C-alpha cells in the first residue's frame, strides 16, 4: 500500500567495509549514539568516584575539626594532647583528607564532568542520536558527517578536561561554574599555583569551548533531522514525546551554548591576553597586586547562567520525554494529555530562558530585576506541574508492568517532585538569600537535575538495551540496582537539604563546627558519606548487568516491551540502513495507541495499516 | 501561510539589478554612518541611529543577498524571531552596568 | 503528490468518524516525507548555525556595551585615519558579498568556471580585509601600554578578533569550495550554503564597525597616531 510511495526515498548505502570507518570514525548515527553512551558511562564513573573521594574527606574533616577543638582546650604539652594529636594525624593519613585546593579541584572536576560529559551527552547525544532517526522513520541523521564531528569533538573535549589532572598545578578549583576572579587570575588559585601553573583552568575553558561547538553541531543536526526527515504520516503531533523532548533540547542548545562560548572566550582572554573583562580593580592575590581593572565578575555570571539555566533543562528535558514514553508503554495507556505534554515541554524550554537570574540573587542584582526573575522562576512550576500530573494521569487506572525500565521511570518522577519542591524555596529571592550557597542548594540540584536525569538514563539504558545490542538486560539485577540507588540518593540528598536548613555552606573543604550544631553536622556528613559509598558501589551492579547482558543476556525479540514506536518495528539490533532495504514505512497512527477498544492487541504500532484501529474507537487525543 | 505552497523555493530568477541596487544601498548607508561620526551627536542618539541604520543594512543583506525573501514566511518567522528574541533577552544584563559605575576602582 | 483537495487519511471503507476528522492531511507540508519549509536541509542547517553564531556575536557586543556603560570616561580612541581604514575594510567586505552573490547565481545557472572565479574573487576580498585588519592590529598592539590591557582595547580585540577568525575560516571554506566545485564535487546548493556563511560574516561586520569604531571616534585627533 505505502511501499511504492516510500520507495522514492531509497538511497541505501552499504556499510563501510573497514573496521575503523564502520565502528570508530563512523557516520552511522547508531554507532555515534553508542559512542556517546559509552563516553557518558565512562565519565559518570570518573565523576562519581571523584565525589566519593571528597565525601571521605568531608566525613573525616568534621571529626578532625572536632578533635582540633578538643585539642585547643587542653594544655599543649599534656599527654592527652599528644595522644589527640597522634589520633588526628592517623586519621588524616588513613583517609583522603585533602588540602582545601585539592578538595575544590575534585569538586570542580566532579561538577564539570557530570554536567557536561554525562548529563548533556547521554540523553541527547546517546539515546537521541540512536533513536531519533529511527523513531521518526529516517535512514540516518540529516548530516551524518557533522554527527561524527560532534562526537569526536566531544571526546576531544573530554580528553582536554582530563588532561587538567596532569598539568602543573592540577585541575582548576573554581567550581563547575568557573566564577572569576578565582578562575580569571592564575595567581588566585592558591598553593601550587604560584609561578607558572594554572594551566588546569585554561584546559578547562578550552574543553568547554570545544564542547560548545560540538553541542552546536549536534543541535543543528537534531533540529534539521526532526523537521525535514520525518517519514510520510509522521506529523509533528504523531512523534513520540521522546522526539519532542530532543527537539526542544536541541533548540535550547542552539540558543544557549553560543553565550557560554563567549563567557569562556572572554575568560581565556582575561587569563592569557591581559584583558580584564571579569577582573575588578585593586585585587590583592598572594603578593602581587593585579594591575587589571574595570571588569565585572557579575558579567561572567550573567553570561554563564544565561547558558547555565537552559543547560539545566538540556539535562532534564530528554529525561522527561523518555519518562512520558515509558510510563505510557508500561502502563499500557495512552499518554494523558499528549498535546499538553508537548506544550509543557515547550513552555519549560521558553520560560527556562527567562530565569537565569535566580542563580544570582546574592550577587548584587537590582531587587526589581530579582523579583522579575523570581516570578518567572515560579512560572516554571506551571508546565512542570502539568507534566507531573499528566504522568500521574497516565498511570491512573493503567495495567502497570513493573519492569526495571518502568521502575527507573517512576524513580525519575519521584525524584523530580522531591527535588522540584526545593526549587520553590530557592526560586524566591527572599528565601534564597538564606539558602544561597548552602547544602540545601546542593541537595536540590542533585536531586532534580543530577540524579533524576541519571535515572532517566538508567531507564533509557534498560529500555533500549535490547534494541541497541539485541539482548535483554537482567531484570532482578536491575531491580536490586534500582532500589538501592533510589533509597541511597534520597538519603544522601535529603540529608543535604537538612544540613542546608541548618546553614551549612557548600564548597567549604573544612569548617569550624563550633559555629553550627556541631555533632549534628558531623553526623550528617557521615551519613551522607556512608550512603554515598554504598550507592556508588551499587553502580558496579549496573556495570556488571551491562557487561553480562551484552554477552549472556537472553536474545531480544523485535518488540520485547510491546511498544508502539517505529524502532520496535525493526530487528534488534537494527540493520545498518535501519529499515530493511531502506524502505521506510508510512505512519498511520499516533505514538501511544495502547488499549484501543476493539483492537486486536492491546497496542497498535505506528506503522500498522489504518485498519488496525477500529473506526469506532474514540480519538486518541 | 506562504505564497510558495509545498513546492521548492530554489528556482527563483537571479536579479542583477536588485543585487547591485542592494550593494549601493549598503554602501550609501555605510557612508551615512561614517558621516555621523564626523558630526558630534550625543552618545545615546548616536547609538540609536547607528543601530537603526545597521538594522536596515542587516535586513538588506538577509533579505536579498541571503535570499531570505524567497523563503516561506513560517521559516522567516522562526529564524528571525527566535534570534531577535534571544538577543533581546541579553539586554537584561545591561542595567547591572549602571550599578557598576558606583563601585568601581 | 496529491492535489489541493484536502483528502483525509484513508480509513478503509469506514465513513469519516471523529477520529478521521482529526486525521492529518496528506498535502500538508508538515505531513512528513518532505521538508516542511521547502528549504534544502543544508541551507536550513546553515541558517541554524547563523542563528547561534549571531547570538555569540551579540553576547560579545553586549559585554562591550556593559563595560562601556560601566565606565563614564570611556576613551574615544579612534581617529580619522582609523575611520578611513575601517571604511575601506567595510567596502571590501561588502563588495566581496556582491561577488559571492554573483558566484551563487553563476553556480545556479550551471556556469561552473565563472562561479569558481567569483568564489575566488570573494576569497580574495576576505584576504584583503584580513590583511588590512592585521596591519591595523599590529599598530594597536605596538602602541599598547605595559601590563594589563585597557578595557577599550580588550573589547576591540575580542569583537574584531572573533570576527577576523570567522573571516579567516570563511576564506579557507571558500577556497576549498571553489576548488571542489570546479572539480565537480559540490552542487550549486553547496555554493549557496557557503554564500550564506559569507554574507553572515559581512552582516556581523555591519554591527561591529559602527559599534566598535564609529562609537569611539574622536575626529579632532586628525590623521596619524
What does this structure look like?
- The complex is a heterotrimer of chains A (621), B (105) and C (225).
- By secondary structure, chain A is mostly helical.
- Chain A has a single domain (3-566), classed as Cytochrome c oxidase-like, subunit I domain (Cytochrome C Oxidase, Chain A).
- Chain A has helices at 3-6, 19-24, 29-73, 79-94, 100-119, 121-136, 144-163, 199-228, 241-272, 297-331, 338-351, 367-395, 404-426, 429-435, 439-469, 475-502, 518-552.
- The two termini of chain A are 26 Å apart.
- Chain B has one domain (16-102).
- The longest helix of chain B has 23 residues, at 16-38.
- Chain B starts with 15 loop residues before the first helix and ends with a helix.
- Chain B is mostly helical.
- Helix content of chain B is 70%, strand content 0%.
- Chain B has four helices and no strands.
- Chain C is built from six helices and no strands.
- At the B-C interface, helix 1, helix 2, helix 3 and helix 4 of B face helix 2, helix 3 and helix 6 of C.
Amino acid at each position: 500500500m505505502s511501499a511504492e510511495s516510500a520507495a522514492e526515498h531509497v538511497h541505501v548505502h552499504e556499510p563501510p567495509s573497514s573496521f575503523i570507518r564502520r565502528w570508530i570514525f563512523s557516520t552511522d548515527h547508531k554507532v555515534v549514539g553508542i559512542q556517546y553512551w559509552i563516553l557518558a558511562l565512562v565519565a559518570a564513573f570518573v565523576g562519581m568516584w571523584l565525589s566519593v573521594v571528597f565525601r571521605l574527606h568531608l566525613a573525616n574533616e568534621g571529626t578532625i575539626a572536632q578533635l582540633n577543638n578538643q585539642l585547643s582546650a587542653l594544655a599543649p604539652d599534656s599527654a592527652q594532647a599528644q595522644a589527640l594529636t597522634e589520633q588526628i594525624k592517623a586519621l588524616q593519613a588513613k583517609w583522603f583528607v585533602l588540602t582545601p585546593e585539592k578538595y575544590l579541584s575534585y569538586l570542580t572536576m566532579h561538577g564539570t564532568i557530570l554536567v557536561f560529559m554525562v548529563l548533556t551527552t547521554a540523553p541527547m547525544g546517546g539515546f537521541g542520536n540512536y533513536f531519533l532517526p529511527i523513531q521518526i522513520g529516517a535512514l540516518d541523521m540529516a548530516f551524518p558527517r557533522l554527527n561524527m564531528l560532534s562526537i569526536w569533538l566531544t571526546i576531544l573535549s573530554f580528553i582536554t578536561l582530563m588532561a587538567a589532572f596532569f598539568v602543573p598545578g592540577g585541575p582548576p578549583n573554581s567550581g563547575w561554574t568557573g566564577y572569576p576572579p578565582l578562575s580569571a587570575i592564575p595567581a588566585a588559585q592558591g598553593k601550587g599555583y604560584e609561578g607558572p601553573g594554572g594551566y588546569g583552568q585554561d584546559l578547562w575553558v578550552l574543553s568547554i569551548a570545544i564542547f560548545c561547538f560540538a553541542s552546536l553541531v549536534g543541535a543543528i543536526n537534531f533540529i534539521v533531522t526532526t523537521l525535514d526527515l520525518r517519514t510520510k504520516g509522521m506529523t509533528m503531533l504523531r512523534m513520540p514525546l521522546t522526539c519532542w523532548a530532543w527537539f526542544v533540547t536541541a533548540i535550547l542548545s542552539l540558543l544557549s551554548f553560543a553565550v557560554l562560548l563567549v563567557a569562556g572566550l572572554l575568560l581565556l582572554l582575561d587569563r592569557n591576553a591581559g584583558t580584564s573583562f571579569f577582573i575588578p580593580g585593586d585585587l590583592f592575590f598572594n603578593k602581587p597586586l593585579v594591575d587589571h581593572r574595570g571588569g565585572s565578575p557579575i558579567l561572567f555570571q550573567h553570561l554563564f547562567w544565561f547558558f547555565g539555566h537552559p543547560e539545566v533543562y538540556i539535562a532534564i528535558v530528554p529525561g522527561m520525554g523518555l519518562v512520558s514514553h515509558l510510563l505510557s508503554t508500561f502502563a499500557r495507556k495512552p499518554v494523558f494529555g499528549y498535546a499538553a505534554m508537548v506544550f509543557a515541554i515547550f513552555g519549560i524550554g521558553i520560560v527556562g530562558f527567562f530565569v537565569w537570574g535566580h542563580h544570582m540573587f546574592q550577587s548584587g542584582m537590582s531587587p526589581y530585576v530579582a523579583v522579575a526573575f523570581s516570578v518567572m522562576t515560579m512560572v516554571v512550576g506551571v508546565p512542570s506541574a502539568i507534566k507531573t500530573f499528566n504522568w500521574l494521569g497516565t498511570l491512573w487506572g493503567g495495567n502497570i508492568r513493573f519492569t526495571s525500565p518502568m521502575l527507573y521511570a517512576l524513580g525519575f518522577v519521584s525524584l523530580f517532585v522531591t527535588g522540584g519542591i526545593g526549587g520553590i524555596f530557592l526560586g524566591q529571592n527572599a528565601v534564597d538569600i538564606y539558602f544561597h550557597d548552602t547544602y540545601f542548594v546542593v541537595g536540590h540540584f542533585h536531586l532534580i537535575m543530577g540524579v533524576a536525569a541519571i535515572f532517566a538514563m538508567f531507564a533509557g539504558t534498560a529500555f533500549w538495551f535490547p534494541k541497541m545490542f539485541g539482548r535483554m538486560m537482567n531484570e532482578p539485577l536491575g531491580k536490586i540496582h534500582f532500589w538501592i540507588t533510589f533509597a541511597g540518593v534520597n538519603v544522601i540528598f535529603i540529608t543535604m537539604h537538612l544540613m542546608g536548613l541548618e546553614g551549612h555552606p557548600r564548597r567549604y573543604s573544612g569548617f569550624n563546627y563550633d559555629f553550627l550544631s556541631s555533632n549534628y553536622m558531623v553526623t550528617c556528613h557521615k551519613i551522607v558519606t556512608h550512603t554515598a559509598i554504598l550507592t556508588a558501589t551499587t553502580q558496579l551492579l549496573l556495570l556488571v548487568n551491562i557487561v553480562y547482558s551484552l554477552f549472556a543476556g537472553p536474545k531480544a525479540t523485535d518488540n520485547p516491551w510491546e511498544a508502539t514506536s517505529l524502532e520496535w518495528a525493526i530487528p534488534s539490533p537494527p540493520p545498518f540502513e535501519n529499515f530493511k532495504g531502506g524502505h521506510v514505512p508510512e505512519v498511520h497512527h499516533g505514538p501511544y495507541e495502547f488499549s484501543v477498544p476493539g483492537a486486536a492487541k492491546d497496542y497498535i504500532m505506528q506503522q500498522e495499516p489504518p485498519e488496525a484501529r477500529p473506526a469506532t474507537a474514540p480519538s486518541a487525543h | 501561510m506562504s505564497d510558495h505552497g509545498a513546492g521548492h523555493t530554489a528556482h527563483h530568477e537571479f536579479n542583477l539589478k536588485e543585487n547591485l541596487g542592494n550593494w549601493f544601498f549598503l554602501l550609501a548607508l555605510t557612508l551615512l554612518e561614517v558621516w555621523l561620526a564626523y558630526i558630534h551627536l550625543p552618545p545615546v542618539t548616536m547609538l540609536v541611529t547607528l543601530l537603526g541604520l545597521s538594522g536596515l543594512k542587516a535586513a538588506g543583506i538577509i533579505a536579498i543577498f541571503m535570499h531570505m525573501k524567497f523563503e516561506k514566511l513560517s521559516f522567516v518567522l522562526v529564524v528571525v524571531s527566535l534570534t531577535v528574541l534571544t538577543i533581546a533577552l541579553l539586554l537584561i544584563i545591561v542595567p547591572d552596568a549602571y550599578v557598576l559605575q558606583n563601585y568601581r576602582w | 503528490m496529491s492535489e489541493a483537495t484536502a483528502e483525509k487519511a484513508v480509513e478503509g471503507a469506514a465513513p469519516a468518524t471523529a477520529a478521521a476528522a482529526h486525521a492529518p492531511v496528506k498535502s500538508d507540508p508538515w505531513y512528513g516525507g518532505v521538508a516542511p519549509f521547502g528549504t534544502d536541509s543544508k541551507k536550513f542547517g546553515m541558517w541554524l548555525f547563523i542563528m547561534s553564531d549571531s547570538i555569540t556575536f551579540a553576547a560579545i557586543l553586549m559585554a562591550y556595551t556593559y563595560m562601556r556603560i560601566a565606565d563614564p570616561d570611556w576613551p574615544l580612541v579612534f581617529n580619522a585615519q582609523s575611520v578611513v581604514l575601517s571604511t575601506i575594510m567595510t567596502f571590501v567586505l561588502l563588495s566581496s558579498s556582491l561577488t559571492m552573490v554573483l558566484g551563487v547565481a553563476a553556480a545556479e545557472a550551471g556556469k561552473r568556471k565563472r562561479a569558481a572565479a567569483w568564489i575566488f574573487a570573494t576569497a580574495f576580498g576576505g584576504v584583503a580585509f584580513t590583511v588590512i585588519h592585521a596591519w591595523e592590529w599590529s599598530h594597536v598592539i605596538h602602541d599598547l601600554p605595559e601590563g594589563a590591557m585597557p578595557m577599550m582595547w580588550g573589547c576591540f580585540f575580542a569583537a574584531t578578533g572573533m570576527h577576523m577568525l570567522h573571516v579567516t575560516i570563511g576564506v579557507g571554506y571558500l577556497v576549498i569550495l571553489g576548488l571542489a566545485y570546479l572539480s565537480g564535487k559540490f552542487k550549486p546548493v553547496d555554493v549557496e550554503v557557503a554564500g550564506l556563511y559569507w554574507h553572515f560574516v559581512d552582516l556581523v561586520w555591519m554591527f561591529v564597525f559602527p559599534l566598535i569604531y564609529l562609537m569611539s571616534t574622536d575626529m579632532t585627533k586628525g590623521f596619524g597616531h
